[in-house]
Sequence to fold (376 residues):
Amino acid sequence: MIELARHIEILLLENDCVIIPDFGGFIAHYQPARYIKEENLYLPPVRTIGFNPQLTINDGLLVQSYMQAHHTDFPDATRMIEEEVAGLKEQLYQNGCTEMHGIGVLHYNIHSTYEFHPNEDGALSPTLYGLSSFSINRLEYLTSTTSAATRELLPRQEKRKRTVRFKRQWIGNAVAVAIAVVLFFFLSVPVENTYVDKGNYASLGTDGLFDAIRSQSLATTLVTVPSRPQQPKKTNIKNNQNTLKPVTVKVEKVGKAQEAVPKNTVAAKLNSTEQPVAKPVTVSKPALEKKETATPSSSKKNKYYIIVSSLPTANDAQQVLNEYKQKGYKEVTIIEGNGRYRLSLCNFADKAAAYKKLNELKQNDAFKNAWILSSK
Fold:
């Protein structure tokens, strides 16, 4: 019986319920910390043990503990527990009570029922180990007796606080005004005079000069495709006119000229009737490499291809193509597009004929996933 109580005590350390087959179950309850006001005593949290005689079904927990302790099998451990329970009942019938070491005392009353009284210290628990009760006296309220010196200091302290508070208010107002001024300058909308009257300015031929510099500058040189050459743009030099048309001011970065432009050259350019604004630069367009392992002979006529496989690399596609040709499909080709290599088993110019052939191929399990690719 001592061994049985020892097994139950160990199992209750990690479990909340331990059942003795055909006898009853011990249940652990958590009781939080308490305060006894009359005694000014604080009690720590504990785990109390209760007994329920209606829990008699074998859950295997106690049997497994016996199996690990005695290195035996399940039937042998069950037999050992039955012997312990028989001895426990015999002792209760004869003595009326028995002590379960570390758990409590079990009684058998005149009503043929079991009564259990747990230990006052509670069950052993690793999480609550070392917590003990203690008493502490309550502090009494101090009498509000202030001396004359204290009464004199109170008005001075209040006056000092008011002075500091008044200064802080002024500082806060000054900071707010400074922030408002800074935001006014940063967030104000700039006013610009974008109206330019060309009639009020003397014309010294600067239009032709800037056109000549712009045509030689890398920053303003136009790069055009040779397929669409641009015609040289004619620049008309306008004389001074008193017109009130707004001119859009456009700022362009002009590269630094390597050599000074002579005046004779500028005059010659001004006298010319046509001046090229931008020199077209021919840029060789790299040819797009499009690798196609095989193209159908009737690609211009046939627009519907029956695709049976789609592979990521050309080597895999060529290998599968050879396999299909060995099986007798001579029209199989590879169609490359969007980074994929698709195998076309056959192609048709008529859409109805293509779908008819597709339905025939899908009757074979090897071509169930075949689909039609239409080229536009």
Residues 304-374 form a domain with the Alpha-Beta Plaits fold (CATH 3.30.70.1070).
